[in-house]
Amino acid sequence: EFPRDWKIAFEPVPGLVAQEADMVKSGGLGDLIAINSKSKNKEAAWEFLKWYADGGMMPMAAGGRLPSSNAVDQQTAIDHLLGDYAESYDKESLEFVLYGDETPTFVRSIAQEVVDLRAQEYEKYFLGNQTAEVTVQNMVKRHNDWLKQ
User: Fold this and answer.
1) Any idea what DSSP says for residue 77?
2) How far apart are CA 28 and CA 132, in angstroms?
3) Of 80, 84, 106, 117, whose CA is between 20 and 30 Å from 142?
4) pLDDT per residue over 73-95, tens digit each?
5) How far apart (Å, rounded) are the C-alpha atoms in residues 25 and 42?
6) Would you tell me the crossing angle of helices 112-126 and 132-147 to the nearest 10 degrees?
């Protein structure tokens, strides 16, 4: 045991200083929610989704699922995230990483089919069913076949 007399601080993902202008961090929203076009309750579903995005999901912030809606009070989200342990964290650095870091983010715009085919090949590799070399070769072939469609 030792006395814990320090706070946990946060920093943005580091980039290469020489190429700082080209630095792009991976990011984006994690929830994808849709309303079925054949739903009999589209208006009610829309009202629910607005409620959920604008704060209905706030109780999940304690587990790290922060609402991304501009209508959500950022301080409330941070309070939920840190909970009873707020004194253990450097709040200013957390606020900067969550809301103040203006490094451009990259959101993948690749077709889901390509994401899926890559995942299928990764799985074969991680399960020991093919080598890394074969995995890369298969991904290249499958990707190129997809591009020809």
Assistant:
1) H
2) 29
3) 106
4) 889 999 999 999 999 999 999 99
5) 35
6) 160
Question: What's 94's DSSP letter?
Answer: H
Q: Which two tokens stand for residue 145?
A: 């076949």
- The owner of tokens 């591009």 is 147
Phi and psi at 79, nearest 5°, equal: -60, -40
Per-block average pLDDT, block size 10, for the chain (149 residues)?
A: 84 70 61 87 94 88 84 90 92 90 72 91 95 96 94
d(CA 134, CA 140): 10
**Distance between CA 97 and CA 116 in Å, rounded?**
31
**Distance, CA of 86 to CA of 148 (rounded, Å):** 53
Partners of 8 in beta bridges: 89
Which tokens sit at 89? 């964290």
Q: What is the DSSP string of 103-119?
A: --EE-----HHHHHHHH
**Strand partners of residue 89:** 8
